[in-house]
Amino acid sequence: MAHSLIWLPSVLTSAGLKVARVGDWENRGRGDVGPTFGVICHHTAGGRNGNMPSLQILIDGRSDLPGPLAQLGLGRDGTFYVIAAGRCNHAGSGSWQNLVNGNSNFIGIEAENTGLGNDFPWPSVQIDAYQRGVAAILNHVGRPADFCAGHKEYALPAGRKSDPTLDMNAFRTAVRAIMQGTAPPPILIPPAEPPSPDGTPGRPTLRRGANGELVRTIQKKLGITVDGDFGAKTEAAVREFQRSLGLVADGIVGPKTWLALDK
Amino acid sequence: MFGSAILEVAIGMIFVYLLVSVICSTIREVIEGWLKTRAAYLEHGIRELLHDRNAEGIVRSFYNHPLIFGLFTDEYKPSSSSKPPGILSRGRNLPSYIPAKNFALALMDMAARGPDTDVVTSDPSGPILSLESVRLNVANLKNQALQRVLLSAIDAAQGDINQAQANIESWYNSGMDRVSGWYKRSTQWIIFAIGLLTAVGMNINTVTIADYLFRDETARAAIVARAEKVETIPGSSSANYSEVKQELESMNLPVGWSEGWGAPKRGRPTSEVGRWNNWMAPILGWLLTALAATMGAPFWFDMLNKVTVIRSTVKPHEKSGEEASEDRQIKKEIVMEGKTAGSAQPSLAARVSAPLRAPQPSIPPTPRDAESSLDGCELPITSDTPDENLPPAQGGVA
Prior knowledge:
The complex is a heterodimer.
Chain A: H1 8-14, E1 18-21, E2 38-43, H2 55-60, E3 61-62, E4 65-66, E5 72-74, E6 79-82, H3 102-105, E7 106-111, H4 124-141, E8 148-150, H5 151-154, H6 168-180, H7 213-222, H8 232-245, H9 255-262
Parallel strand pairs in A: 1-6, 2-7, 2-8, 5-7
Antiparallel strand pairs in A: 3-4, 5-6
Chain B: H1 2-35, H2 37-49, H3 58-64, H4 66-69, H5 100-113, H6 131-136, H7 144-156, H8 161-201, H9 206-215, H10 217-231, H11 241-250, H12 275-294, H13 297-314, H14 322-328, H15 348-351, E1 393-394
């Protein structure tokens, strides 16, 4: 039976965010959640490499701690991984807005970050997605930005947790601006390159699931198996390529990545 | 003069019973001080009142609540038995009296903040004790019957937290009346046993004493004079054991074993002392004394006042205030009875009820449970998920 937070992907997608559903997310959870009041923001303190190296741990938990450990994971490229629609062991003991059962009354978002100096400042695309995602969820549950807490603010005894390494007051201010509509709209990846001066239409933005001649071109340029199928391996290779050039490593071949591939 | 003699014998007997009752009550208190049965009854009463017979949930939290925990020493270790305590049950270290105010405040606090004391329930950012927060968080108690009682108490209060507290206090007091009843009944059995032992041990024999008083006018006058003195000294019925024993001995009544078995022989020919006087009369007399002792000192004290008033209508006498006699009753056995609710001073709950911050959400939050203390971020992650294994994403492209 699907759990209550079945609305998460659609709410996030309509906020202009990248959303990836982890298999069987609808039925995952430590039972169902209680009434949802807000969001608790975490960071994973996971590995430095990769887009979301902590994902499997968030899904399965550890031997001493049953998963899922958060409803949402947030990759370094700003993609929300929907892990569970049910209750997750993310908050622990603490209190925020008179609410003391964080696991049941808050949605947990684990953003991929080591929590160390080697991963600071956070990628701006990730911060932006974080704030927009929280704003979309709070809008959906009908609560103000004050119902967004950092795990370090919620957890008791005080000082038990230090995540996330963000200024939560500034974070809430940004969330409030997004909720009130005073923030600029999200920047989306254009569906295709701008047409060239002679009128030829630009190459379309390609992502996982695409196939055809343009995918072969990408695979040739990346030096991987050429099969014309934009699968998981090709996506990983694109991410690696983007990462090496300091682009957003989202595995989506948009205008910027096309330009970089042309060089 | 005949009627007066009967009355005087009655006054004398009542006075003797009063003294015996005081002795028995004193011994009872000594036993109680050692056994603490009252605490056992109170604990059982609390279990019944809070609908937690096995003391597995809310009763345990209640006794461990700081407002209650300070009333006794050591820790709360409930017995596994859910049966009512026997007449000689040991109350161990538990409190024999819990003020109604502590009870009500502890209950409301547990409802608002959660039953157990830890970093979360003691955190200043937790819920503020108010009717709204009690109502919203009442599921904290995890006890449907108790939740219902609390909800009806706060609803009947119409938004007045003092009234809600008073409602809970009166509910507690009515429960405690039952506990007092149990304790009284158990005490009556014990006092009967003590009374019998005292009657036999000190040879206080109703039949003999009445007989003696009826025949001996001087002794009668002396004891009546003494009894009249008692009724004018309020609180004398709570005199201590040794004083009372001295008093009893000083009256030169036919008590004690110094004159041998039965002892009804004073001033009477030996020929009249037959089987009845030797065997049945003492046994009957002792039983009567013991039964009289179960009535308790307050009863005899009150009776003494009443009889003296009757007598004073026969003989001119300084009128004793009959109305006052009820007030003078000292409720020795019923110490557990709670004080009446609604004192003039504003309660603690009222003083903190002013809203210090925005009102709470109107949907009841989930109370803490077995898994609410689990979390897992910032712990070492052993195996990384490679990018290849990430699920495909959608959205983000215009």
